[in-house]
Amino acid sequence: MKMLDKFFRKGKILTAVLLFTCIGVSASAGPGLKFKDKKFKIIQFTDLHYVHSDKHKARNDSTIELMRLLIEEEKPDLVVFTGDVVVSSPAVAGWDRVTQPMTELQVPFAVNFGNHDTETDLKTSEILEHLSKNPMSVTSNQIEGVSGQGNCSLPIRSSNGDQDEMVVYLFDSKAYSEHGKVSGYGWVKHDQIDWYRKTSREFTEKNKRVLPALAFFHIPLPEYAVVREQEGTLGNNTEKVHAASINTGLLSAFVEMNDVKGVFVGHDHNNDYIGGLFGVALAYGRKTGYVPAYTEILDRGARVIELTEGATSFNTYIRTRSEKLFEYTFPY
């Protein structure tokens, strides 16, 4: 982990414990994130559906090889997994395998959990604890007691390292509804939204300005169904939006805090579209895994997001093994 810029607060030396604890707006454990020559690149891998078995070895190897190829070609500063990564037991063996490319290539990675990540021999809290031992992992529970696992903010520092420039927010969209009156998939809950609002305000107060941000989680917001039908939406939209049955107002919070410029999800394997709503881009990744959960029609790949220091816009596109697709700049 890179040394923190300052070791003093109110005249007291920060202890080593605080260096590895995510409190308030401090960074998660793991390598620090910063712009390089005013550029920062993220690769979003999603829905690997990694099944740890000899039967699926060839497909598993293809998934890992694709990830390694795209990392070597795109040279990202951060990899984000947006859920349904390892969907069978033993989970530890699966997670060690899928994180191997980042570990060996020394690329920081962050993890959202999906609904199928909960269906193994480990709880998501246990998976997060295991991943925390990997020096390239930047995911943590920023504040204990908030619903879900892996809710945290990841500040991206300026090229010279003297200030925060952007923020990446990770949310656990949970698996399935736990409320007796609501069926279907899970959702980002109100205590998570309260945590985000508080953290966003702290970043604004600390930096004397609103920092542009991106958000990542697994299950799409209900508003994705609106974006799907818009004329300017770009990409494949051949599958309906499998959102939660209830809307807790996360997009409203993003709009009101005026910082999150893009939201990136997985879950629906035949969608990879992106479009804008209320000044926020809503985007799917491209399914990365070769083990199909149902009938799938898209070539495997990833979404790439390019950030520029000092800009509130971003560029993004889909990458497969052989081509770059659907290049998009938001906002236009």
UniProtKB/TrEMBL annotation:
Q: Name one GO molecular function term.
A: hydrolase activity, acting on ester bonds
Gene Ontology CC: one annotated term: cytoplasm
Q: Which Gene3D superfamilies match?
A: 3.60.21.10
Put simply, this protein is called Metallophosphatase
Report the InterPro entries cross-referenced here.
Calcineurin-like_PHP (IPR004843), Metallo-depent_PP-like (IPR029052), PAP14/16/28/29 (IPR011230)
Q: Which domain of life is it from?
A: Bacteria
Q: Where is the signal peptide?
A: 1-29
Boundaries of every Calcineurin-like phosphoesterase domain copy: 40-270
Asked whether the keyword Protease is assigned, the reply is: no
Show the SUPFAM superfamilies listed in the entry.
Answer: Metallo-dependent phosphatases
User: Which keywords describe this protein according to UniProt?
Assistant: Signal
